[in-house]
Amino acid sequence: MEALDLLNTKLNMLLKKYAALEAENKRLKATVAGHEKNVDALSKKLASLEQGMVSVHLGKAVVDEDEKENMRLQLDNVIAEIDKILNTLND
After folding, report:
1. How far apart are CA 68 and CA 59, in angstroms?
2. Of 1, 6, 44, 82, whose Cβ has the fewest other Cβ atoms within 10 Å?
3. What is the pTM of this model?
């Protein structure tokens, strides 16, 4: 009878440890998910900042008004070509 009581006590201890570990695992998974969301948000912010930095560098690199106008014309041509391709794809 003592063996059964001892076995029952050990089983209860193991069940309590299992429940505690399950709760900790759930908490850790929630923490990891929160950190992953944070990393995604920071990655998006970094990409945005890098894009802004490229724009600033381009703006500083092109100082002459003639160069700016030429770049604007080139961009307009590229956009026009992209529009033509998109229209072709849509047909």
Report:
1. 9
2. 1
3. 0.52
Percent of the chain predicted with pLDDT > 90: 42
Report the chain's terminal Cα–Cα distance, integer Å: 85
Place of tokens 């990409």: 47
Helix, strand, coil distribution of the chain in percent, nearest 5: 95, 0, 5
CA angle, residues 13, 19, 24, in degrees to nearest 5: 125
Is 70 exceeded by the pLDDT of residue 60? no
Query: Which residue type is seen at 89?
Result: L
Residue 6: per-residue pLDDT: 92
Q: Indicate if the alpha-carbon torsion angle 85, 86, 89, 91 is positive or negative.
A: negative
